[in-house]
Specification:
Radius of gyration: 18 Å
Number of helices: 3
Number of strands: 17
Helix content: 10-25%
Shape: globular
Distance between the termini: 26 Å
């Protein structure tokens, strides 16, 4: 399926067999793909006990040899973003750069970049001009999961689907055992192991409309999230339920 090939290429998990996004350079009579295709854009509403408290706006765009995930967080009633982030991934899915900025009065920021074969995080605060460095003995293929931006869970889901699943007779088939990923959580200055597994197709109510979506479970030490993606729309993330925190994330 075209959308399956697209996800494989974006995450650099299946580019060799799937071809590029849109037409190949040598194809004739086919429309060329945009130079910087937008892979996803929109916003999530974050609800706690049914009350909207945050809005996360995001874009995922392929730009030359990298894919860039940009996001910003705004509290309900706020006039401007309070946090922004930018995640850059190379064509083979490795981390190029991650930056987070606190746009409030605190004026803090952090940057994660490769350092030889591993990663290094540099944190800057208003109280100090010199960044604090935190090294991580993790490969550059490690995924960033910022604990404030939910769009990173979509990117992780795409990586899981491209690496561990395939389409068979119109049905999504994945390996039976959960797939494990090492991830970095920059604001916690920590790395953790998380697991993703396919649960199956479920009927889910999204803004008053019943949708037929694919459920994935994301879990780790001390947490368990349910996530639903739309396999009819490029496996976009539609809903997250964090039952233990009475929190729900819904695509607007």
């Amino acid at each position: 399926m075209k959308q399956w090939r697209r996800i494989g290429c974006v995450l650099a998990m299946a580019c060799v067999t799937a071809g590029g996004i849109g037409a190949r350079a040598g194809d004739k009579g086919k429309e060329k793909a945009p130079s910087n295709p937008m892979l996803d854009s929109g916003s999530f509403g974050v609800f706690i006990r049914g009350q909207r408290v945050l809005t996360e706006s995001f874009t995922i765009q392929q730009q030359g040899s990298a894919s860039t995930v940009r996001a910003q967080l705004k509290q309900t009633g706020s006039t401007g973003p309070e946090q922004t982030s930018e995640l850059q991934l190379s064509t083979n899915g490795e981390l190029v750069r991650y930056q987070w900025d606190d746009a409030s009065a605190a004026k803090a920021s952090l940057v994660v970049t490769p350092n030889n074969e591993f990663l290094i995080e540099r944190i800057t605060t208003a109280a100090s001009d010199k960044p604090v460095e935190q090294p991580f003995l993790l490969p550059t293929s490690t995924m960033v999961l910022d604990n404030n931006f939910f769009i990173h869970r979509e990117v992780l889901a795409w990586r899981y689907l491209a690496a561990n699943c395939h389409q068979e007779k119109g049905s999504l088939q994945c390996q039976k055992e959960p797939a494990e990923f090492g991830v970095i959580v920059p604001q916690d200055r920590n790395s953790i192991r998380v697991r993703l597994e396919l649960v199956g197709r479920e009927k889910v109510n999204i803004r008053g409309t019943e949708r037929d979506l694919v459920r994935l479970n994301l879990s780790g030490e001390g947490f368990s999230w349910a996530m639903w993606v739309d396999d009819h729309d490029q496996f976009k993330l539609m809903r997250i339920l964090i039952a233990a925190d009475n929190t729900e994330v819904i695509r607007d």
